[in-house]
Amino acid sequence: MNFSFYSCILEGRQLWFEEPFLLAASEAVHAVCKAGFQTSGDYMYEQAQPPKDGMFLFEVTRKTDGFSTLVFFDTRTRPNFIWVDNVFNNELDITISQFVNMLEKSLSAALYKHGWKVRLNKFLPRELQDIMLFHGAVEYVNAYLNKEVILNRAAFRAIVIAADIADEVMEWVNNYMKGKDSPKAIIAPLRAAKEAGAIIAMTKAIFLNIFGELLGNSLSAIDKYMPLTYNGYGDKAYNQMKERFQEIVNKQA
Fold it and tell me: Under a CB-based contact definition with an 8 Å cutoff, are residues 198 and 161 in contact?
């Protein structure tokens, strides 16, 4: 994971007489996160793991193409901090820039009734006191990222084209799937591995045997996203996964 850090600056807006829902700046973002962060426009917010001591982790997915990333809110600090997982490892990537702009607007919209608007400022921690602001945050985020994804490793090895590359394929699938919540994002590494010729099959029954209830009630997404006829993949992140699996397959050949 490659997180970019933003300080969340709250600016008071013009208030009208006897507005009922005003909150102090120290409480506003916490209140919005605790309420579950309402789905906004083209993006869907899903809680990635239970909140802890004022820390919140969301999977945010763009409805139009399934692009998703993790967003961490730390409301313990002053100012509050927001971490955005830069999935392309490129600070200048236009998708991430657009995403941060959307996040700023969505927060402002959610906080409007509480008397605030939001400005997100890029933050580069340089001093020890800056690093100490994140005490406990890394542990909280890592608890989610390090959850084991593949529950039946023997069953996974059975679908890889060759035994000598099975463990390497499995570890890359596991790494790519960690921290993902939307069905499309979870299935993407499997589809990339299948397209690259690294695995021979992936059905709903096979998925359940290997990953258990990872997809929850969305198991039917296997039938939608796994066929090579589905053309909703193909962004930079997906192509990088496919290239990685092709390299592994070529080593075996």
Answer: yes
Which residues does 106 contact at the CB level (< 8 Å), separation at least 6?
Answer: 40, 41, 43
Least confident of 60-64, 79-83, 154-158, 249-253: 60-64
**Rounded Cα gap, residues 222 and 169, in angstroms:** 19
Whether this prediction's pTM lies above 0.90 is answered by no
168-183: pLDDT as tens digits: 999 999 989 887 777 8
Residue 32, SS3 per DSSP: helix
Tokens representing residue 174 in the block = 């596991």
108, 8 contact by CB (below 8 A): no
152 exposure class (CB count in 10 Å sphere: 0-12, 13-18, 19+): middle
d(CA 55, CA 81): 10
Taking a C-beta distance cutoff of 8 angstroms, is the pair 7, 79 a contact? yes
Amino acid residing at 140: Y
Angstrom distance (rounded) from CA 152 to CA 132: 39
Q: What distance in Å separates the CA atoms of residue 117 and residue 108, rounded to the nearest whole number?
A: 4
